[in-house]
Write a structure and sequence with these properties.
Oligomer: single chain
Shape: globular
Helix content: 40-55%
Distance between the termini: 34 Å
CATH superfamily of the largest domain: Type I PLP-dependent aspartate aminotransferase-like (Major domain)
Number of domains: 2
Strand content: 5-15%
Number of strands: 12
Order of helices and strands: EHHEHEHEHEHEHEEHHEEHEHHEH
Bound molecules: pyridoxal-5'-phosphate
Largest sheet: 7 strands, mixed
CATH architecture of the largest domain: 3-Layer(aba) Sandwich
Amino acid sequence: MLNQKVYLDFAATTPVDDRVMKAMLPYFREQFGNPSSIHSFGQQAEAAVEDARDTVAEGLNSRASEIVFTACGSESDNLAIRGAAIAARELRGANHILISPVEHHAISHTAEQLKHHYGFNLEYIPVDKFGMVNPNDVAMRIQPGTAVVSVIYANNEVGTINSISEIGKICRQRNIPFHSDAVQVTACLAMDMEALHVDMLSIGAHKFYGPKGVGALYLRDRTPFLPSQTGGGQESGLRAGTHNVPFIVGLAAAFKIAQEEREKRITHLLPLRNYLIEETLEMISDARLTGHPIERLPNHASFVFKDVDGNNLLMLLDVEGFACSSGSACRTGDPQPSNVLTAMGISSEWALGSLRITLGTQTTFKDLESFLRVLPKAVERCRDQTAR
Ligand SMILES: *Cc1c(COP(=O)(O)O)cnc(C)c1O
């Protein structure tokens, strides 16, 4: 019998939940109206979008007026950083952007562009060996001239969860807008906008069993903000463009399921994750866990193996029927250690051998048992090849 493929890359994307699919379908054909139209077709579509907004707002412990639908997590990140930075400069001459060195590229490349093309000063907050930001380091670097602070909630490469609430408090005390990228968090953890003290927070549906191509930005009322995409007055003028009604409905349905099944998901995932981490570290020599051992996503295991070519390992695993990731979008033929691992102080002889295994609602112990039968041999084969 041929090996069944096992998907272990849920941090890259997740399949759409059947219930989400079912909720979306009517909005492609029967209820296809444009929410901006006055007639009954438009009204129906508008009601669907506003229902979705209420669902997300309620789940985030926020107001409906604070939810902006976007086309993906990356767009939410872009919109947040640009919108807050440029408005802060116009309003109070603020010119300083503070981010962590372990942000997703949707944040770091946006901040770099604001530096190189818009004249902002960009400063990076240090992280510890687990990729975690110490809130005191934010307190030490934040200035009256800080336009925006952004710290990732849970890192996509190494799974470390940051103390967002602590950092948020510091920013709130200084009255500086604070953004957090929560794209990896939504599938498994609760998010309360009051408890977290954030002014902006990004989510993307395809990381929590919703469709690709839709996201949302929580934007606290009265945060000074300049929209990026101008046009019609959709999303209270904050994000122009005809609403993608079926996808917005899908995002809300997936969000609701994530909330309702959060406990169940964590109970399912934690033992699997712990088993995978313990077995891997025990069976493979010169292997290290990356990211925080405790403050990490319940579905996330990430490692570095010394003297291994990570891309090579991924290909060997794929041939054996296991879909994993190196954790970063690193291209073959250009072996650059990930900047996240480098920021954590991991040397390149280790960092080039990174492996990320992320679990989902469908993952079973059996999947991991068969994976663990293959992994040690695959690592050894990569080491032989490297040695040659
Ligand atoms: C996937 C991801 C994004 C980008 O989201 P898209 O919806 O794919 O654009 C941003 N930040 C983090 C942490 C992610 O994991």
